Protein: Methylmalonyl-CoA mutase metallochaperone MeaB
Organism: Thermoflexibacter ruber
Amino acid sequence: MRKRLSIEEYIEGIKSQNRFVLSRAITLVESELASDNALASELIEALLPLTGNSIRIGITGVPGVGKSTFIEAFGNLVTSLGKKLAVLAIDPSSQRTGGSIMGDKTRMETLGRNPLAFIRPSPAGSSLGGVSRKTRESMLLCEAAGFEVILIETVGVGQSETAVSNMVDFFLLLMLAGAGDELQGIKKGIMEMADAVVITKADGDNAPKAHLAKAEYQSALHLFPPSETGWQAQVLTCSALENKGLQEIWELIMQYQCLLQSNHSFQQKRQAQNIAWMHEVIKQSLENQFYNHFLIKKLIKEKEDSIKEGKQHSVKAAIELLELYANR
Amino acid sequence: MRKRLSIEEYIEGIKSQNRFVLSRAITLVESELASDNALASELIEALLPLTGNSIRIGITGVPGVGKSTFIEAFGNLVTSLGKKLAVLAIDPSSQRTGGSIMGDKTRMETLGRNPLAFIRPSPAGSSLGGVSRKTRESMLLCEAAGFEVILIETVGVGQSETAVSNMVDFFLLLMLAGAGDELQGIKKGIMEMADAVVITKADGDNAPKAHLAKAEYQSALHLFPPSETGWQAQVLTCSALENKGLQEIWELIMQYQCLLQSNHSFQQKRQAQNIAWMHEVIKQSLENQFYNHFLIKKLIKEKEDSIKEGKQHSVKAAIELLELYANR
């Protein structure tokens, strides 16, 4: 293990947009050590005035939808506009091993060589604040280091989407044409979080299917209410292969930002996300303390089994465990 | 205040299907007193072997969709089949006053006089377990008292739907034709919880619009994946006025029950709901203890404000409060 930097070194390095220091700061954020977590919190708090100046975009979709290809093409478009881009990926599968989706593959090669882009996988941790803390803090570090567009990538199969949608400004769902959602493995509820749905691979023989899917999703989304910000989710198609539709997606995101800034919900949404984040850390921590207590660990399975077998009332079981914990 | 019955009197009364005792037991469940809550838990646990023999149906829809009229017509159909029916209504607006949606109105008059029906509003409490505990326990009491169909009614505007969908077997969403959802005030995510959507008031001039809406919703719902039970949400129309479509809704619910019983997910879903209920009570209680502590009450607003103003990092604020609480 490399020696830890001092907090001043981290702050200075990030302020001067030093990528090497940024990487090490993200490693600090990702650490499971309590002392590292405390230092990370200090660091973020010190950098707080430098954060917030990016557009935060969440991107999800099941494996096979072409996320990497999309992000590479979209990222190259964004950097061609002169914007500094950071890509963070949450990898739920790496929770135990510390590996990452990105580590295994040679992907995003051209974006990886792009001087305006910074790519970093973010293993989903299990500590305080769960999946979201590390990515959220990494995002803030990237902002402090001057990145103007942050893409947060996740695999569209579960919990991490909710976490991501709670930390970004704009949530983009990538879908394939022709496959029903049931085939695509998209979980219930994810569609409703999307600010935009993009049908990928709209090229060659697949183009007509993609345009049909666009119309279907567009009419389905119209049945849902617009979000509180006044935004109505849109459906677009794109082809990373033929480099089509990417500009339109970027423009849509800019429209979104304009609308929300003009009705003041952009900042309000972020403030609400930050406050909710505090409460989430509190709740998660209270739960972790409870469920990790040896008495509870010993009894919880037993209680669950008696409930399952209809021998115990859920509330009574809860009360018994709570009393035990209170008198610990 | 009437004297409390002994636990034996409650048990005997409910076993003998005495409605007067059932009503008093529900009043016990709805009480905010800790001693009443403890007695209620004991009572439910004693009655547990008698519970579970009903089909639990959640019904939601915004004001104006015709919920009362629907429930009255549907309830009369169900009782005409010889089934004993209990209707419980969660009324979020009565949280403070103790009043109820039903108390204010002369509604469900014929159902109210029906000897096979039992109607009871359930004020949404704020105590242990939140909105759901009282209704859940009332539901179990009704089952122990021999009711075979339980309708749980809620207003389709927010949190209570999630609570209800977590306690019922079948979740029914009532919608109006012609009004966009945005006009109907349906919250995001509620549609995806529905096992069936019913377009109400499909009569007279409104009938063609209702049938069009049916087709639209049906095709929209097909874009969503079926639930883990294998059920694909259906859309139906009905007219309580012309007494049309109600039989079809009942048959659909029976189909649902058949499917889920044949693939064993009916019982599995209930077991999972009961286990989740225990965890929900635990989490709610840990949070209540934290947020009701005088130190936290004193500081929480201040922390929220510093986060809002960008002066403090969410995680650091959480850690400070948690440390304060741990050393209380």
Summary: Chain A touches chain B through 62 residues (CB under 8 Å). Residues 239 and 284 of chain A are 40 Å apart (CA to CA). Chain A has three domains: 1-50, 51-263, 277-326. Chain A is about 55% helix and 15% strand.
